[in-house]
Amino acid sequence: MATFGSLALVLALALAAYNLFAGTIALRLLATGHPARISPERLADTARRAGIAGFYAVTAAAFALVWSVFTNDFSITYILEHSNRALPAAYKFAALWSGQEGSLLLWAWLLGTYGFVLRLMHKTDVKLYAYAGTILAGIQVFFLAVLNFAAPPFSLFRGAIPPDGNGLNPLLQYPEMVIHPPMLYLGYVGFSVPFAFALGALMMRYPGEKWIRITRSWTMVTWLFLTVGIFLGMHWAYAVLGWGGYWGWDPVENASFMPWLTGTAFLHSVMMQEKKGMMKSWNVWLIFSTFLLTMLGTLLTRAGLVSSVHAFAQSSIGSWFVTFMCIVAAVCIFTYVLQRSHLKTEHQLESLVSRESSFLFNNLVLLTACFVILWGTLFPILSEYVQGTKVTVGAPWYNKVAVPVGLFLLFLTGVGPLLPWRATSLRSIRRNFVIPVIALWAMVVVCLVAGVRPWTDGAFDAGNFYALVAFALAAGVLTAILSEFLRGAGVISRQTHRNILSATWLLTRRNTRRYGGYIVHIGVVVIVIGLAGAAFNRNQEQELALHDKLVIGPYSLEQVGATQDTNPNYDSDYALLDVYKNGKKLFQMAPEKRVYAASGQPQTMVAIHSLPTWDLYVVYEGTNPGTGQPIIKAFLNPLVSWIWAGLVIIVFGTLVALVPNLSSATAAPRVAARSTVPEPVLKGGD
Amino acid sequence: MGAFRSPGIWMKTAQAAVLAVCMCFTLGASDASTRFDRLSHRLMCTCGCAQLLGECDHYGCPDRGQEAQELNAGIAAGSADQEIFDSFVARYGATVLAAPTTHGFDLVAWIAPFLVLAAGLLGTVLLVRRWKTNPAVAQTAAAASDPAAIDPAAKALREQIRRETDFDGGAGL
User: Fold this and answer.
1) In A, residues 94-123, which contact B (CB 8 Å cutoff)?
2) Do the Cβ atoms of B98 and A394 come within 8 Å?
3) How far apart are the C-alpha atoms of B137 and B143, rounded to whole Å?
4) Is residue B154's pLDDT more than 90?
5) What pLDDT score does A672 carry?
6) How many angstroms separate the CA atoms of A467 and A470, rounded?
7) Which of A180, A192, A559, B21 could covalently link to A232 via disulfide, CB atoms 3.0 to 4.6 Å apart?
């Protein structure tokens, strides 16, 4: 199977290379109109077909690796290092992306899949798709070259083959890890598609904004995958790492967050291009940057540039990624300089206080947030270069620098939808802002009364202050969004005599993108409320003898015994804790400690009792070697479940935004009016 | 009542008020466990787990216990925060601090993000103002508002955009 997999990878590389070179020659011939022995259209079609065949070849390679995991083929070094016989089937599948080589193969396979779908849909716009397909082939050549020459997943183990493998890292043996990395990769890799369309459209001086409408769904789906991937990672960190938090500002976490921020900025600013023909250069650079940031994230994870709990071991592929990023940046800059006259804006801003300028400020703050995270991630390297000593840029720095930027962004989330396009009158501001501002200040009063005050024991408390601001802004933003729904629904209700719920449903169906977007904003507000709860986290660590009690918040945890379990993969120790509130027993919690057979590594499995108000989060930290008693650490984390609820709302809102509008009567003339490109023909002239 | 008119009494009252306010702001600051919690979240565990000392929880950590002991000793000895940090840096190196300091080159880490945000905001405001005052833009806007200069398809499109985006027309209707 190793030979089959290796051959499949070589074949995939050859096909991707053919796709790239034949596609480039065909598009060049079409652009210049030079006569050639072969028809450029036919050459371009052979390139497209090579791309499709390349997908099958990469799929075969991925299948070979998965097959080898399931058949315990420990003659392959990768399988030996990342699997073992007793590993459950779901985690054997996860072994595909648990190491350097396998995860690169997953990347190549996902890129091949995206490319496959794109090439099948080429009739939408043959020429634009030919450009995009060729650019994707260029990216695929890079990944397949790395897989063939720098990080081969099918390299054979030298020496006597051990009877069993080293097993999967215990941290990765958790349900989220079966789905978190593929989601994240779907997001990372997916941004290659809008990047390829943007670069292709710029290369061919594509008229109009149709390429944006073609890529809209791709971009939104990709963004959704990345969002879900990031939050699954947060949930994994929360449930597995056992420190009571979900985001540690680790460089690898940051690496996934940066393209999310620029991708979010792109999703907003691209509306300006669609509706107003503005910010064309900005949008092109946003998507270029997003793609480059996905590459930077991959580089940070794999090259050992920064220390991280997530990062793969240091390897030689860092130089490959740096070279590739330099080539991509050079191609982007060259194309932009050559074609920038094509990106002239059609309109300018007419007012500093308008929907357009709110998009501009929203983009500015999103990019500042991205800069903050990039700066924090790379500052240790810069510091070492400048002053010879490395420094740590950890959570305290991010909390002081990134949180204010995030709150400013939340403020804009509320303000933006209330501003009309073009210009805003004072009367309009008064009318639209009065209720949200009242809600905001009412929340300030409620919080102060409830004890959320920006000082503790007389001293200023930054955490409480930020929480207060976050709750107040959340109230204002939520009111602003809901008033938007009610305003529109009220008009429909009056016109059609429907009740307000039915009118809201119809309103959303008529402009799914806009109102789906608002639902996403509601999700963001709910998440911010959940994040703000972290200011009030409490924890208590205690060694518990039998019937000893640990008190945290309103709960009392009594140690009532311990139990053990074993299976071929790991041995477990459980501490059994009865949870009381007001003297009444509510339930039992059983935090677990595992020791994995293959690696001998210990791992905690947290017990979580989740409520809308807070999570009771209990960790079995181990036993005191002197007394043999379990050491229990309990956390009371307010509002954490709001974070996961917010994600569900975001997913729902994005899906709503992806649904076509209800009224085809209004959609059809719009497309007809904007479509200026004859299709589907592959012709020259650009 | 007459006594309250005396400047000495006013001075004493003011001093007492200032003292009371100062006490309010320093209440709890000397509490050892609160201080340990606060300082341990400004120091890193040095075992390589990349976690804050106050959050490091992995089983069998070789360094957490030793660092926590040193921190407790520093607090018990009444050392100032900076003295404790200095002793940690001397022993473990600068990477033991969870955030850059606020002097020397480290200060750049703190100010650069806010400078970038301020420059961005200023640049955006200036850009919008320039666009507003640019005669070419005014002409574009004038041409855009001239119904005769717009072809019917574009006009229909504009109307639709206005319908879908204008508040007064009802959102999305």
Assistant:
1) none
2) yes
3) 10
4) no
5) 43
6) 5
7) A180
Q: Spell out the residues 6+ positions from residue A312 whose beta carbon is closer than 8 angstroms to its own.
A: A99, A100, A103, A301, A302
Nearest residue on chain A to B141, alpha-carbon basis: A347
Q: A-contacting residues of B 62-91, CB under 8 Å?
A: none
Contact B26 A394 (CB under 8 A): no
Are residue A134 and residue A21 in the same domain, yes or no? yes
Helix (H, G, I), strand (E, B) or coil at B86: helix
Instruction: Look at A444-448, B56-60, B139-143 and tell me which has the smallest mean pLDDT.
Output: B139-143
The C-alpha of B12 sits at a distance from chain A's nearest C-alpha, in angstroms, of 22
- How far, CA to CA in Å, does B93 sit from each of A384, A672, B45, B67? 13, 66, 12, 13
* The listed CATH number (1.10.8.640, 1.20.1250.20, 3.90.1150.10, 1.10.150.530) that belongs to domain B29-99: 1.10.8.640
Q: Is the peptide bond before A251 cis (omega within 30 degrees of 0)?
A: no
Global model pTM greater than 0.95 = no
Instruction: Say if B18 is an interface residue toward chain A (CB within 8 Å).
Output: no
Verify that A500 and A589 share a domain, yes or no: no
* Strand, helix or coil for residue A559: strand
Confidence class of residue B131 from pLDDT cuts 50, 70 and 90? confident
Q: Specify whether A189 is located in the same domain as A133.
A: no
CB contact under 8 A, B167 and A428: yes
Are A135 and A157 in a shared domain? yes
Same domain, A634 and A648: no
Could you tell me if A275 and A394 lie in one domain? Answer: yes
Q: Is the pLDDT confidence value at A686 over 80?
A: no
Answer whether A354 touches B (CB < 8 Å).
Answer: no
**B29 with A361: Cβ contact below 8 A:** no
Interface A-B, measured as beta-carbon pairs within 8 A, has a size of: 195
ipTM: 0.76
The domain in which residue A114 lies consists of 1-168
- Residue B21 pLDDT level (bands cut at 50, 70, 90): very low
pLDDT tens sequence across A591-614: 998 888 877 888 888 999 999 999
- The CA-atom distances, in angstroms, between A327 and each of A19, A52, A346 are 18, 25, 31
Is B26 close to A458, i.e. CB distance below 8 A? yes
Closest Cα in chain A to B115: A368
